Amino acid sequence: MNYDDVVRGRRSIRGFKKQPVTKETIKEVLDLAMRAPSSLNTQPWNFYVVAGEPLDRIRAGNTERNLAGVPHSREFRTQGEYGGAHRDRQIGIAKQLFAAMGIAREDKAARQDWVLRGFRQFDAPVSIVVTYDRSIHGSDIGPFDCGAVSNAIVNAAWSRGLGCVINSQGIMQSPVVREHAGIADDQVIMICIAMGYPDDSFPANAVVSERKGVEEAAVFVGFDD
Ligand SMILES: Cc1cc2nc3c(=O)[nH]c(=O)nc-3n(C[C@H](O)[C@H](O)[C@H](O)COP(=O)(O)O)c2cc1C
Questions:
Q1: Does the beta carbon of 159 sit less than 6 angstroms from any atom of ligand 1?
Q2: Atom 7 in ligand 1: which residue has the minimum CA distance?
């Protein structure tokens, strides 16, 4: 696959085959992804690659706490509810996903089921919990570098026939993840990435999300034309 095919072909995968992913394959993906740039080449990221029983315990803990209404506890700053164009885009992708899955707006049970799937990391066989070194906690550079490597992971995985969804829901109950993934005290949990072989019969996997145009995003300064 060339670069354009990977980038334009990749989409978030939310339905997975049961087929396990080998450690060797994951190592290859991480090795490729870790060519990502980082501030001063500090590479503050670390990965807890979780599968099997520990991942099932995380899914169970996330489900239980979310159903019980335990407040979310991410380990970094968040902005609260989105508004304006951000909110519009959030609604846009939700509408695309619900349409693909045949989930009606008023079907509260089906919507709740979808949310719970997210907290279970869409039942993926692997979850990569991305953490960064606590020694740089408080600076925005660590999360920036984790974003770079996370994007590289999902693209490297796609180039090997694997699908991923970067998944905030999976780390919203961070004590659960901390306990069952055995996260070291000197690490801050940033995000997790659900990974596995895509189930092509799962309707949401066909959804191609929209992007604003370059003209909307980019301001060109100092060009002649
Ligand atoms: C930081 C981050 C957190 C995300 N969290 C979730 C999530 O909790 N659940 C989910 O279904 N998708 C999640 N996504 C996936 C986005 O919804 C998805 O990347 C976006 O809609 C664009 O779609 P695409 O990845 O198919 O291009 C997350 C993506 C990022 C970058």
A1: no
A2: 167
